[in-house]
TrEMBL record:
Identification of the protein by name: Alpha/beta fold family hydrolase
Superkingdom of this protein's organism: Bacteria
Keywords recorded for this protein, A-Z: Hydrolase
Annotated organism of origin: Legionella beliardensis
Gene3D superfamilies: alpha/beta hydrolase (3.40.50.1820)
Record-level Gene Ontology MF annotations: hydrolase activity
One Pfam short name: Abhydrolase_1
PANTHER family given in the database record: HYDROLASE, PUTATIVE (AFU_ORTHOLOGUE AFUA_2G14860)-RELATED (PTHR43798:SF33), MONOACYLGLYCEROL LIPASE (PTHR43798)
Domain AB hydrolase-1: 58-309
GO-annotated cellular components: membrane
Lineage, top ranks: Bacteria, Pseudomonadati, Pseudomonadota, Gammaproteobacteria, Legionellales
Length: 328
């Protein structure tokens, strides 16, 4: 893991330029069930503009979490570039340029994604999702089993979700434009403080643990760049994310435990045990219900441990190996 050697301002600006390249070039695709925004790239990060061209490469479908969009998916799932597969990021209904319309429920969103695969002439994909992507990800595998080769679920919701019970009080202010603006500006002025605040909103760690982890994260480029990306991915909340977040919360409140026993594809369930946003038992349930599911528990990790944990490289490598094995 490389140390942050560049001056902070220069490092952040360099990373923001890389982010701009990654998130540019999204397309709004019309399907039989409504429009959906995508960011479609090959293994080398080159945008795929001709969506009608049949590619021989397999596809990894990336579904973002709360406060996200296709931009969040591309930024956070960058470790999966360079593996020989195309990467397809989407904005779920209510996020980015995908209107909510009638696609509110997880079932409706799963059907919309399947309709997108029809337009793109993709028979089947491997699907990876984070957090609030869980219901849509799982329903896609349940309702359209022939379209899902395998799934990777990272800290994903699988049962009734209640924000007030699932997160510290401070998390309730996160869903606001002022918070995202303050966090992004604080990142440039006091990165360790901003990182601590982000960890405080999404983990059950104590104050000392948070401070120690924040110091370690801000000292290494491989981790600190994902703090920059997480902060960037929640910007423009009112214009690009609010409708989707509010729908996720409403749908999650009425979500019954999913019939995960109906999933027939290989599954890797990853969850951090100190996650305060989506509690650990959601994935314990998923791993127990999905036949032959593999699991990877991150001891004492936060909601974003897949990127920020001390063992993040090994955790990501496990996910990559699972993906490649499923593509053979």
């Amino acid at each position: 893991m490389a140390a942050v050697n560049l001056p902070l301002k220069e490092f952040i600006e360099q990373e923001e330029r890389e982010i701009d390249k990654l998130v540019a070039g999204s397309q709004l695709i019309q399907t039989q069930l409504g429009p959906i925004e995508i960011n479609y790239r090959d293994s080398n990060k080159v945008p795929i503009s001709n969506i009608q061209a049949k590619s021989r490469a397999p596809t990894l479908l990336m579904i973002h979490g709360g406060m996200g969009g296709q931009d969040q998916a591309v930024m956070l799932f960058e470790p999966f570039f360079g593996l020989g597969c195309n990467l397809l990021a989407i904005s779920r209904p209510g996020y980015g340029n995908t209107p909510l319309l009638e696609n509110k429920t997880a079932e409706q969103q799963a059907d919309l994604i399947a309709a997108l695969l029809d337009v793109l002439a993709l028979d089947a994909v491997v699907v990876i999702g984070l957090s609030a992507a869980g219901p849509s990800l799982y329903q896609l595998a349940i309702r359209h089993p022939s379209r899902v080769k395998a799934l990777i679920a990272i800290n994903c919701i699988s049962m009734k979700y209640q924000l007030r019970k699932s997160a510290p009080i401070i998390s309730q202010i996160v869903f606001s434009e002022p918070f995202t603006w303050v966090l992004n500006n604080l990142l440039k002025l006091a990165p360790k403080t901003a990182t601590s605040l982000l960890l405080r909103t999404n983990s059950l760690l104590n104050k000392e643990q948070i401070q120690a982890e924040a110091a370690q994260i801000t000292a290494t480029t491989d981790k600190f760049k994902y703090i920059i990306r997480l902060c960037r991915s929640i910007l423009n909340y009112d214009n690009s994310r609010k409708t989707g977040v509010e729908n996720d919360i409403e749908q999650g409140h009425y979500l019954n435990p999913l019939h995960l026993e109906q999933i027939i594809c290989p599954a890797l369930i990853i969850h951090a045990t100190a996650d305060a946003v989506v509690l650990f038992y959601d994935s314990v349930y998923s791993a127990a219900k999905i036949p032959h599911a593999e699991h990877l528990w991150i001891e004492g990790g936060s909601h974003f441990s897949f990127w920020l944990n001390n063992n993040a490289p090994a955790i990501q490598q496990r996910a990559k190996e699972f993906l490649l094995a499923c593509l053979k």
